[in-house]
Amino acid sequence: MTTILLIEDDHRIRESIAGALANQGYAIKSEREGMEGLKAAVEEETDLVVLDLGLPDMDGMQVLKLIRAVSEIPVIVATARDDQEEIVRLLDLGADDYVVKPYSAKHLEARIRAVLRRMGGEESTIVTVGDLVIDQDAHEARLDGELLELAAKEFDMLAYLATNAGKMISKREILAQVWRLPYGGADKTVDVHLSWLRRKLGETAAEPRYIHTRRGVGVKLVDPKA
Amino acid sequence: MRFRLNLVALAVTSMVALAFLFPLASLVDRLAEDRALTLAERDAQLVARIVAANSDLVGAGTAFARVTSNGKLLGRDVSLITADGRTFGAPIPASEETPMDVAGSVPAEGGQAVLVPAVGADGQQTVVRVFVTNDELNQGVVRSWLLLVLLTVTLVMIAVAVTDRLARSIVGPVEELGEAAARLGEGDFSTRVDPDGPAEVAATGVQFNRLASEIGRLIQSERETAADLSHRLRTPLMAARLRIEQIDDPAGRADVTRDLDEIERSIDHAIEELRRPARSLASGGTVFEDTVRARAAFWAPLAEDQGRRFKVVVPLTATIVQVPSSDLNAAIDALLGNVFAHTPEGTGYRVEAEVGDRAVLTVSDEGAGFSSDLATLRGQSTAGSTGLGLDIARKTAEAGGGSMTVGRSASNGACIQLSFQPTPAN
After folding, report:
1. Which of A160, B150, B171, B176 has its CA 20 to 30 A from that of B306?
2. Helix, strand, coil % (nearest 5) of chain B?
């Protein structure tokens, strides 16, 4: 059983997340302070750490640095700050992924699964849908062998749709997984990025090939030849 | 500044050099003339002594002929003039009258005549005349003048070069200070100068570094406050979210979730507002036309997918407005996002930028227009959204020295104008 260490000072969040993760079959340990969390991460058997940055005794970033100094254990950081500078700093410090508050338990579960897959080497970094090949490690997408020039969010959205090819994905889920805004964001953000993605894939909403939208339901990526 | 200092050095040294140059040139001229006349006088006295040693005029004439050679002595014309008007040696122009009792030089045609009276043993009065040509009088003058001019030019150039070197030591630190101030204005708060140059400039550098440190500290403090506020506000919000997810009744859960969405948007907006001053300080301004063009292009594919006719009119100028590019992007996106969110697919829109005394962005659509303009002005929507997008647009315009106005387009749809105060070009 996978053991998750949750370092979070707010007892309501700790209890809710611990309960939701336990229901998914994870073994949960939780700590409310950074120092205790650090001890638990290093001394006890732990498969993944969910680390809140706002801790009462020490800064979460400091805890992250200390964990990274002695361990390769995967760490998902929970932060209330969503500015790029902060996110880049976190990833540079060794965070494997991050979630921005307020995040949902489902969102966190999805992130935990993705990080564990990566750590276990189970997840192929190359996804193929028809003539579309997406290399997540190289951050490259090719259509019919031609490199696509995609913006960061366009690539992330395409990669997410491709890893869930054939499955109808709601725009809210895309906002949660790609923009990490599980509870909203600009109404038309996903739409406009989808339009750009369609254009770069050489198709239109009226004549879709890979990207199919169903009004009020969501969007899915399919192999047009299938 | 450096050029001006060099110009001052050039002017001052040139004036000083000229003040010396003209008297020196005159002196050189006088010295050359004196030298030539002195030599001629020496020759004349020599001849006069020989002539005076003879007892009569015939002997004097014979002695004169022996001393001179066809009226020439050391290349100069020499004449012996007797009191009765006879002339031995070099001829004298008929027009010239030679005084018999004057010793010295007198003007003559083509030069000067040096006269030395001589009285023979028989008391006969004669005058020895040595003619000095103008060429002899001016011999070496032009060369000396050229040397003087060359020396003057060299001295002026040296003075300018030395001034330039000194100017560089003053101007260099001032320029560095100016460049650092520009970097600071563009948001690089780590910029510092190495205080150097004259004491006053170095002291200004020290004060600049202190100012930059203080601004950096304030910005950092703003950011930390924003981060702290984010944490303090979003953590309980998230706890509430998680609790709501556990509510069994779907209808009740949806109602509470909607309310919480509203609270969350307001909190996001408040946090965004808190970050705004730090961003504004870190901004060096934004090119208005480029930003409008880029955002209009960003929304174009969605417009095409939704069958919307749209027109974008942006002049080919580059006007700086003093708002961070992220805020201007957000403001334009809010206006265009509203068009897409609140008008049916297929509804056309127009994006127009005009630049004059003000930089004005107009976004108008062919939809049904606002049901309540006043409500929108306050940032409260009547169309199911929070109106925060328009509030952001209004605040961005106000931060840029302008305003937002809401009205109706020609087709009775919505029309929103954002105006900004353009920054004068440097």
Report:
1. A160
2. 55, 15, 25
